[in-house]
Specification:
Radius of gyration: 22 Å
Helix content: 40-55%
CATH architecture of the largest domain: 3-Layer(aba) Sandwich
Number of domains: 2
Number of helices: 10
Strand content: 15-25%
Strand order of the largest sheet: 7-6-5-10-8-11-9
Structural class: alpha/beta
Number of strands: 11
Length: about 260
């Protein structure tokens, strides 16, 4: 009987661990962890006890103590095993699982605004690019970011790191159909602006509408043709010299900065 009870308790522990794992995510890297601590979204922090940057350790201990966040010293192998790779910079943190914003909630959020800009990312593949774009979106006051549920990078530890502590500042929405989403935004008096390298209009001479939706394509294929057909405008970034194209995160930053000027 004791053996059966022991096995039952072990199974219960496993189930509880699985439930906890489903509610938690990991972020890593020194700056992202410190920024997340300051925003009070961290549950526990682990750091490599042999880390050489003492000023970072001082700041980490100070903020964890100030916020009442448990801080544990571990070896580097533990951090690598938790993350699945070794580029953790000697620190990782457990945070609550990222919560996406419901699309209808996003529509209600911007419905009454005289000016607002929403970003649609059509099948972005690289989480690093997604994180960098979310950082730009936060920097330029973008009202929300929409990504498709399928065939797209989603929010994970890499996104959290490359967003450099800004994850959660801009609502992110998952939708089953980008086409349906942008058409609903059209019905709510938004103008659709698509990024297209073959467009005739250069961004330098384009004035963004006060209520605009910017549609940016993925790294390899750009904006899908069906989405481009829905656009009221298509624009391009003029590139000079020997550079053929810009990284999608760099191009997004240019577009979002320009759009932020028009939506003021």
């Amino acid at each position: 009987m004791a053996n059966k009870n022991g096995k039952k308790q072990e199974r219960e522990k496993t189930r509880q661990h699985e439930k906890t794992s489903q509610r938690e995510e990991i972020i890593y890297g020194r700056h992202p962890v410190i920024e997340a601590l300051k925003r009070q979204i961290v549950k526990r922090v682990y750091f490599y006890d042999g880390i050489e940057q003492k000023s970072f350790l001082f700041e980490l201990r100070r903020v964890c103590d100030e916020k009442g966040i448990p801080l544990s010293a571990v070896d580097s192998e533990y951090l690598t095993s938790r993350l699945g790779r070794s580029n953790h910079q000697g620190v990782l943190a457990e945070v609550d699982r990222f919560e996406y914003t419901d699309f209808n909630s996003l529509v209600q959020l911007v419905k009454a605004r005289e000016s607002a800009c929403i970003l649609v990312l059509a099948h972005l593949e690289d989480p690093g690019n997604l994180g960098a774009i979310l950082r730009s979106a936060a920097a330029f006051g973008i009202a929300g970011v929409i990504i498709p549920k399928k065939r797209s990078a989603s929010v994970n530890a890499t996104v959290a790191k490359t967003s450099a502590g800004t994850l959660g500042l801009v609502p992110v929405t998952l939708v089953p159909s980008l086409r349906n989403a942008v058409n609903e935004l059209k019905e709510n008096d938004f103008w659709l602006v698509g990024s297209d390298s073959n467009a005739h209009t250069d961004i330098s001479g384009f004035e963004f509408p006060k209520r605009s939706v910017i549609i940016i394509g993925g790294e390899s294929k750009g904006v899908p043709p069906l989405l481009l057909k829905e656009c009221d405008y298509t624009i391009r970034i003029k590139i000079t010299g020997d550079v053929e194209s810009l990284n999608v995160s760099a191009a997004s930053a240019i577009l979002l900065h320009k759009a932020s000027e028009g939506s003021k």
